[in-house]
From TrEMBL:
Official protein name in the record: non-specific serine/threonine protein kinase
Stretches assigned to the Protein kinase domain: 52-344
Lineage start: Eukaryota, Fungi, Dikarya, Ascomycota, Pezizomycotina
Record's keyword terms, sorted: ATP-binding, Kinase, Nucleotide-binding, Serine/threonine-protein kinase, Transferase
Enzyme class: transferase
GO molecular function: ATP binding; protein serine/threonine kinase activity
One Pfam family matching this protein: Pkinase
Keyword Zinc carried by entry: no
Organism, as annotated: Aspergillus heteromorphus CBS 117.55
Region of interest called Disordered, as start-end residue ranges on this chain: 1-27
Family statement drawn from the similarity comment of this UniProt entry: Belongs to the protein kinase superfamily.
This protein's record includes keyword Isomerase: no
Length: 348
């Protein structure tokens, strides 16, 4: 992978007139990893392993950088994840976790893995569509009850498979890790980014005994992390469900009590977030949302013991009942589907 020379610093003078752009300009690849992609590096500059041509920068996962790429052998697009070999090897673990879920309903397929390509480890995955985080912003910051319930039912099924069949805890659930499919699977919600996933810890002797994880800090994303994760406890199925509940509730309400924590009484914003999670009851947390969300949090936070296997069917039935009571139809028409259709009609 050859990189172009570093761009010169802009001069402090009047800006020159912009030059005409080529007719087929390729999107710039912008990466926070300095030795991976300087700001001027374009997709036309890099072909990985003589096979994968980078097309555009998609974003960063729990580690590494993700690009849309073209397989020059098959002419098929894919998502290519690159991790610099100078960094700790977390890609091998993600590869093994993702491979365990390969070809399972609602999980991305592994297309390519190589532990040493120049200075990088490379993981090729099935190319998917936008994340629920992107779609939420596109829809104005929240989703309707119908869209949220359709998402909830699918994601509970994903966690059920991941937990019960593979005995894995995701540990980093967030909207950016839920991606929509493309083409014929455009209605399907995928669970992605297994970079922080881990086999479930079994507590010795006492099912309520937490083991303190030897970690320098929180594993996961603070905004949606469970209380146990904030306390650096080993995470289990219950923690994934708690995180999912926060995400779904934020989808339907547009925010959570700790969305914009302010320092109070000497507490930092991060400490304030944890404080609010501790103090907020399920009733208070779910105010303004359908009652199925309160029932969900009552079950997850008060009825589930640390080592319990959740009753996924009960939780799915809970959301389905709310769905049918509101006389919705499982037509795979989401909020963004309607909005996009309306935009097309305006253009026409």
């Amino acid at each position: 992978m050859q990189q172009p020379p570093q761009p010169q610093q802009p001069q402090q003078q009047a800006q020159p007139q912009p030059q005409p752009q080529p007719p087929q300009q390729v999107e710039q690849l912008v990466s926070p990893t300095p030795f991976l992609a300087p700001p001027t590096l374009t997709a036309q500059d890099i072909i990985v392993d003589g096979r994968f041509k980078l097309l555009s920068y998609l974003g960063g996962g729990s580690f590494g950088q993700v690009f849309k790429a073209l397989d020059l052998r098959t002419q098929q697009p894919l998502a290519l994840k690159l991790e610099n070999r100078r960094d700790n090897d977390r890609m091998t673990s993600e590869y093994r976790m993702t491979e365990a879920l390969d070809r399972c309903h609602g999980f991305p397929r592994v297309l390519y893995y190589y532990a040493k390509v120049d200075d990088f480890r490379v993981l090729g995955l099935e190319l998917l569509g936008p994340s629920l985080g992107d779609l939420r912003r596109y829809c104005g910051g929240s989703f309707s009850v119908k869209t949220t319930l359709m998402i909830a039912i699918q994601l509970l099924a994903r966690l059920q498979h991941m937990h019960k069949n593979c005995h894995l805890v995701h540990r980093d659930l967030k909207p950016e890790n839920f991606l929509m499919g493309i083409g014929r699977r455009g209605h399907m919600v995928y669970l992605t980014d297994m970079g922080l996933s881990q086999a479930k810890f079994v507590a010795p002797n006492d099912p309520m005994h937490y083991r303190v994880v030897v970690e320098p800090g929180l594993v996961g994303t603070p905004h949606w992390a469970s209380l146990a994760a904030h306390r650096l406890h080993a995470q289990t199925y219950r923690d994934d469900l708690e995180s999912l509940g926060y995400i779904l509730l934020e989808f339907v309400l547009g925010g959570l009590p700790w969305s914009n924590p302010q320092p109070v009484d000497g507490l930092t914003p991060a400490q304030r977030r944890v404080h609010l999670k501790q103090l907020t009851t399920p009733q208070q947390l779910c105010q303004g949302a359908p009652d199925c969300f309160r029932q969900y949090f009552d079950y997850v936070t008060t009825q589930l013991a640390y080592n319990d296997v959740p009753d996924y069917k009960r939780l799915i039935k809970m959301f389905k009942k709310e769905f049918w009571d509101r006389r919705y139809q499982f037509d795979n028409v989401y909020d963004w589907t309607r909005r996009r259709y309306a935009e097309f009609r305006v253009v026409d």
